[in-house]
Amino acid sequence: MRKISIFYLFILFFLISCNQKQSDSTQKVSNDSTLVFKYAKNIMMERTEEGTKVCLKNPWKEGEILHTYYLVNDAEKAENHSDGTIVQIPIKRSVIFTAAHANLLEMLGQEKAIAGVADAKYMLIPDVHKRLKMQGKPGAIADCGDGMKPNIEKIIDIQSDGLFLSPFENSGGYGKLDEVKIPIIECADYMETSALGRAEWMKFYGLLFGCEAKADSLFKVMETNYLALKAKAKTSKQTRSVLPDRKTGSVWYMPGGNSSVGLLYKDANGKYAFSNDTKSGSLALPFETVLDKAGQADFWIMSYYTTMNKSLLLAEYSGYAALKPFKTGEIYGCMVDKTPYFEEVSWRPDWLLQDLIQLFHPDLKLGEMRYYHHL
Asked: Residue 22's pLDDT is what?
């Protein structure tokens, strides 16, 4: 009898031990924040024996993978993966095609890892332009030309560890860049529908450049501030409505209700004529529809280059005179060739949210705006 009791006690101890180990293992995985995405929907990361496997979902074709990466510390010793691209990390030399990603490297303290840039004229980053002028000197950045027609020879000469560029639907590949034996990092973060989701991709880029902890810390700071602002917006007793952007050719592109900008308006607790729309992209609308649905908005916001005022708006399109915010003068603009809007808002949507809250809720008096000013 005593032997049977001891046997059952042994079995019980064994089961408890196994459950404890399984619990500890689960806890270990769940605590690895670099592998967990709270907001981003189009990226997955998992640890492997040789490094980290990263899968980017195809944002245009549900259920398909856009690209798979195997991030390793020694590419020469890594297993050959026919289904993806091997990337040796940390990346020391990169060619960056977008202002937003070049600026992120500055935020993460990895600006020295920028060896070349495309479309340099659109980057409002002082260090980039300073180093573009240092040709022939250590630390110089190479100008790789137009992003749509980059200088392939110069990119090869740089001996980069990775090319960072944004993919597009039905692009058909990257032309001659596909033939260059340099890993192409497809920066599809801009296809995330939420601002927090896009910003969360910084965890992936932090892993690529060997600064995971800093990227995770920056995201937490941004997230905390964003959620606090979102909660603050709900305390306002004054809520106004917005009219975004302006006509482009024959149509007016308005943010869809489920687009990143449309969701920002919701997080700012503001009124937007197309907030109930379910599209995650833009709405191409005729002026008459905009006038009917959003023509009575309380304020108008837009981005522009060089200069903008009411006279220039009327010269651009006389129909603007029928809009309520044009009549009241409640027009606010962001001069994007002088203000680093496109460089910052992808990673610090909390800064943009604060501007929007001030416009939607003047009673909260959050201080001066970072991006928009009264025209």
From this structure: 42
Write the secondary structure of the chain as one string of H (helix), E (strand) and C (coil).
CHHHHHHHHHHHHHHHHHHHHHHHHHHHHHCCHHHCCCCCCCEEEEECCCEEEEEEECCCCCCCEEEEEEEECCCCCCCCCCCCEEEECCCCCEEECCHHHHHHHHHCCCHHHEEEECCHHHCCCHHHHHHHCCCCCCCCCEECECCCCECHHHHHHHCCCEEEECCCCCCCCCHHHHHCCCCEEECHHHHCCCHHHHHCCHHHHHHHCCCHHHHHHHHHHHHHHHHHHHHHHCCCCCCCEEEECCEECCEEEEECCCCHHHHHHHHCCCEECCCCCCCCCEEEECHHHHHHHHCCCCEEEEEECCCCCHHHHHHHCHHHHHCHHHHHCCEEEEECCCCCHHHHCCCCHHHHHHHHHHHHCHHHCCCCCCCCEEC
Give the pLDDT confidence of 76-134 residue by residue, as tens digits: 888 888 899 999 999 999 999 999 999 999 999 999 999 999 999 999 999 999 999 99
Is the pLDDT reported for residue 252 higher than 70?
yes
pTM for this predicted structure: 0.88
